Amino acid sequence: MPPGDNSFGRAIGELLALPFVFVGWLWRTSSRWRAVPLAQKNRMRVVGAVGALVGCIVFAAHGFPVVGPEPTAGVAALAVLYLVVGVIGTVRTESLTFDLMSVFWRCALVIGCVALLIFAKLGAL
């Protein structure tokens, strides 16, 4: 290495910046997702859920070569939830004024926070 070449320091700096780049990408993606019309969100959910269910069926048919049956069942259950919410949102486009999945994820966040507070309190006893 020639003197003054700081490629190692530059690589470390880029590795340290990587989480911030990822968070910025997540922020831009969520901003764009909020601008998508509700009917299109529901159609995308249906297509994604069907794709995930097909993937779970293929994993089950091959004897769960990558992961076990429990994680595959969890992914399949979430895909079924997305499928049901997407179909309901697609069929009832004119009557829905809010996103059902955003309500679901906010409720899941609240339940998770309450569970963490309860388990943290039980651990302190």
Architecture blueprint of SSEs:
Layout: H1 7-34, H2 38-61, H3 69-91, H4 100-124
Helix pairs in contact: 2-3
Structure, described:
- The chain is extended.
- The mean pLDDT is 87.
- 80% of the residues lie in helices and 0% in strands.
- The N and C termini lie far apart (57 Å).
- The chain folds into two domains: 1-35, no CATH class; 37-124.
- It has 125 residues and is mainly alpha-helical.
- The chain is built from four helices and no strands.
- The relative contact order is 0.09.
- Helix 2 (38-61) runs antiparallel to helix 3 (69-91).
Helix content: over 70%
Shape: extended
Taking all Cα atoms into account, the compactness measure Rg is 21 Å
Quaternary organisation of the protein chains:
single chain
CA(first)-CA(last) distance: 57 Å
Mean pLDDT score: 87
Which residues sit in consecutive blocks of at least 5 with pLDDT less than 50? none
Largest sheet: none
Number of helices: 4
Sheet/helix structural class: mainly alpha
The H-and-E topology, N to C, reads as: HHHH
Number of domains: 2
Give the tally of β-strands. Answer: 0
Beta strand %: under 5%
